[in-house]
Amino acid sequence: MSRRVRRKLARRGKDKVDLPSYLEIEDEKLSLDGKGMVDWTRLPDDTVIQLFSCLNYRDRANLSSTCRTWRTLGISPCLWQSLDLRAHKCDTSTAALLASRCANIQKLRFRGAESADAIINLQARGLREISGDYCRKITDATLSVIAARHEALESLQLGPDFCERISSDAIKAIAVCCPKLWKLRLSGIREVDGDAINALAKHCCNLTDVGFIDCLNVDEMALGNVASVRFLSVAGTTNMKWALVSQHWIKLPNLKGLDVSRTDILPSAVLKLFASSQSLKVLCALNCPTLEEDTSFAANYSNKGKLLLALFTDIFKVVASLFADTKKKERNVFSDWRNSKKDKNLDEIMTWLEWILSHALLRVAESNPQGLDNFWLSQGAALLLRLMQSVQEDVQERAATGLATFVVIDDENASVDGGRAEAVMRDGGIGLLLNLARSWREGLQSEAAKAIANLSVNANVAKAVAEEGGINILANLARSMNRMVAEEAAGGLWNLSVGEEHKGAIAEAGGLKALVDLIFKWSTGGDGVLERAAGALANLAADDKCSMEVAVVGGVHALVMLARSCKYEGVQEQAARALANLAAHGDSNSNNAAVGQEAGALEALVQLTRSPHDGVRQEAAGALWNLSFDDRNREAIAAAGGVEALVALAHSCSNASPGLQERAAGALWGLSVSEANSIAIGREGGVAPLIALARSEAEDVHETAAGALWNLAFNPGNALRIVEDGGVPALVHLCSSSVSKMARFMAALALAYMFDGRMDEFALIGTSSESTSKSVSLDGARRMALKHIEAFVLTFSDPQAFSTAAVSSAPAALTQVTESARIQEAGHLRCRVSDI
């Protein structure tokens, strides 16, 4: 059996227009060509149109370019009834190119002032719905022209970010030009005056849904004149005069729903609105501190037939009370409503409630006020998950964004609340988010991927994401041509790649190549996606097998390109970290040499050590440290100015983080293996900062500083500099008191090489007076050093253990003696067995 599509034809003028239809089953097979393959060009037109309808605009364009027939079908009016430009740069010229397809567009979503300016060039005079965000720079002039060119407009939404440059003048223009308007929601306007609101009341007789959200001032009395309004939101609006509200808004004859979330509304105003308004059914007051702090109001509020949604109420229970059937589970109220028989009045209220709740919860999550843990765990997370299943795309997006936001404790340090993240997981949120991520709508893909990424910071959630197939989904999204989608997917892979158990799965899903391709695809103008891709590659490169595959798919070239050309510090830091991890595998693969041989790699890393950002300097120094284990790289780093740069870095990081100090000293340690570099470090003044770092309180810094000083001490000139710069007391202190056995060992080695007699001859060069003073100084330093070297050696000898072993010769006793003298890490040092 095969599928065919019953064709429906609608007449428009003299032409027949194909409309999408439904599938039927029939016994015939699709036409096959001579090789037994499906001949796609013989598919019924409606099947092709239905296929097109499941693709984004970019894929539709690609498919349309394959043949003339599909090009014609690809511009069918039914495919161009809505347009989402948010992910695309849409200027005037782009809009003009799209104009031929936009005659029948009814719904438009855009982002930013440039796209707003270009809307009129689409020539879509039949537009009914316009929704825009990132509207801070949109002006009165732009909005007025949009209104004037689209007289059929029924819905206009700008937000949730603030429309700072829009005034009441633009609102008056909207009122005059768009008489069919029934929904108007604007965010962040400084002042909405009475003239503008009265113009809406006069000209827009069908205006039923009004939102002046996060505004500074709104004329309360004038709002009382909009008799047609059924749903009104002033959420987040300041300077409200609640006495006037309760006096004038109770006269609105059709008002069913009122949203005052995030305002300072008074309990008395709530009670008066409920008591005096005949039509008001639902009042949403989420995160209203005055109500929540009034414990008597919160505990004793009761107003039969009037529904209050607040942080202290059971929102599911309140919403469920709208329905006659109260036997169903309250937590399923939204899904039950969507699957129930349609009731116009209830549908209006529930549709508005979904929008209002998604907006309010997102705003609360963004502000992250203290003391809401119980709310989020008991109902907030569950509400977002239910809203994510809405049929309203913008509600779905905001709910997913809310999930991504409310779990974050500290965005700077990428820390999330484990309890909140796992609450989402326990309520089936991972599966819901992954289903959204599979949507063909790129806005949903982006927000779902963002939520998955943030939740995956928690190890338990990351495991669940992997088990439910999330890695393959994110790897596929990382290949998206939509930058926002690719960026969030790369962020998800970055967080998942922290877990060692997920790295192999990311590689198997093709994630490594997808991430490398992202760097080439968005090499300019995509700092966010580049940082996330480089960060994910840095984590993956820490695994030996993944490290080799990163190099195979072109990762070395991509990361070096970022280190050389990108100016954004986040990208620089992650690129340098990735190169450091690629070079960290020693003899297990050839990546260390490959990075060094990549044109401009070493020069770029040397330059990054001069960055004003500590994170960039730290990772660049770490990369140079790892690369210096290769003999050719070591000399090439010096030739690229690495000695001077790293000495300057060591001088500047005395008060920096232990991580930066460790890597600065470590890079000098790696370079100083070469005698020529060791001499150059001494001449550049590298001894003094290394001695300062040896006095650090951090164990890791002790080891790298002592290691560098040990290498420098091979040269008698450097040995003398160490004495003259006060290095002997610092090394003696390390030798006797460092927590690190490795640091104590290398400090002892440095002291031993300094005073093996070679420095004495070097010290005698010069004037006789200088020689005498140095000789006296050297004698005292030598005695101090030899005393502590002997004490260090004795720390490995336990007299009781030795005597027991000598008497019994038992294997266990001998093993105890051996283990007490073992320095596990010493096998990695480049020194003679006799030294150890």
From TrEMBL:
Localization per record: Nucleus
CDD domains named in the record: F-box_AtADLO1-like
UniProt cross-references to PROSITE patterns, sorted A to Z: ARM_REPEAT, FBOX
ARM-type repeats, residues: 428-470, 469-511, 510-555, 554-585, 600-642, 641-686, 685-727
Chief site of localization: nucleus
Pfam families tied to this protein: Arm, F-box-like
Listed InterPro entries: ARM-like, ARM-type_fold, Armadillo, F-box-like_dom_sf, F-box_dom, LRR_dom_sf
Name of protein: F-box domain-containing protein
High-level lineage: Eukaryota, Viridiplantae, Streptophyta, Embryophyta, Tracheophyta
